[in-house]
Specification:
294 residues, alpha/beta, 40% helix, binds S-adenosylmethionine
């Protein structure tokens, strides 16, 4: 960055937007604004009233570092340490998957089934593969009587989820358990609903994944065997003994594994015929299965 003109907020944004565009960033202007707001310790919206302000050397150095990392492919959410999900703000680190908007469909499907139960009695649910805790915490916030068990195989992810639960004031409602799917639960742990956004990408798909996902997001959160179905297969096998009769199993998945995942549930004699909900792009996104009543 040359020194002939002062580096104002406006000039830094323009320069950085052009630079990130050359580096093929998807949303260069938004990224530049978010990173400059982070370096200045202000809200993004405040940049618009500070356009002509000259940025001091210290925040400029901080900004330069952030832009360098972004240009190398580091996702903005990890650089900020935050991501919005279901209109709430969550802490994220490279130990957890960055929450995706598609997962809000899974939350809505769970809320639809829980609302009546949770109003009148204490419903119990289990979130398998909690990651940042975005699903467990959103459900606990919306249903204050809900009791949640949040499972993850990653101790580092559970720490992030615990911090998020504290920040959102729902730590009392959520028990965090390190477990490989449901295996560490006591036999008598029985839920009204099990919700999961498990890893569902096949190792065969690895070469076609975007570079920033592959390079920066935890592989334990992404991949599940050659065909992407290991976790779903095992969850469908384990879930019935931890679900009440008539209880729900809700799983997020993607279009590549959708047909095979539906076939797995259909082949189980423990569930009624499953249904599938689509996301805004009309892609199959949520698998809904109900444990048979008897
Ligand atoms: C796709 S991420 C979902 C994270 C979060 N629920 C979300 O929707 O953003 C999958 C999560 O499952 C966890 N996981 C992977 N294999 C697991 C297993 N066998 N048992 C429990 N958790 C597992 C990963 O550590 C990761 O946090």
């Amino acid at each position: 960055m040359s020194a002939e003109e002062p580096w104002t907020v406006g000039r830094l944004l323009k320069w950085t937007t052009d630079y990130l565009q050359q580096q093929q960033a998807d949303s260069p202007r938004l990224d530049a604004e978010l990173l400059l707001a982070q370096a200045l310790g202000c809200k993004r919206i405040e940049l618009y009233t500070r356009f002509d302000e000259v940025v001091a050397e210290e925040p400029r150095g901080k900004f330069r570092q952030l832009v360098k990392q972004r240009a190398a492919g580091m996702p903005v959410a990890y650089l900020l340490g935050r991501r919005e999900f279901y209109s709430r703000d969550f802490r994220v680190t490279p130990d957890v998957l960055i929450p995706r908007p598609e997962t809000e469909h899974l939350v809505i499907a769970a809320l639809d089934r829980l609302r009546e139960t949770a109003k009148t009695e204490t419903a119990r649910i289990c979130d398998v593969g909690a990651g940042s805790g975005c699903i467990a915490i959103t459900l606990a916030k919306d249903l204050p009587k809900l009791q949640v068990t949040a499972i993850d195989i990653s101790a580092a992810a559970l720490q992030v989820a615990q911090q998020n639960a504290e920040e959102h004031g729902v730590a009392e409602q959520i028990k965090f358990v390190k477990s490989d799917l449901l295996t560490a639960l006591p036999e008598n742990a029985v839920f009204d609903l099990i919700v999961s956004n498990p890893p569902y990408i096949g190792l065969v798909e690895k070469p076609s994944l975007p570079k920033d996902v592959l390079q920066y997001e935890p592989h334990v959160a992404l991949f599940s065997g050659e065909d992407g179905l290991d976790a779903i297969r095992e969850l469908v096998r384990q879930a019935p003994s931890h679900l009440k009769p008539g209880g729900w199993l809700l799983i997020e998945f993607g279009p590549v594994v959708a047909e095979a995942a539906v076939a797995i549930v259909t082949a189980s004699d423990q569930f009624e015929a499953p249904t599938v909900e689509k996301d805004l792009a009309k892609l199959p996104r949520v698998l809904i299965a109900r444990r048979k009543a008897t």
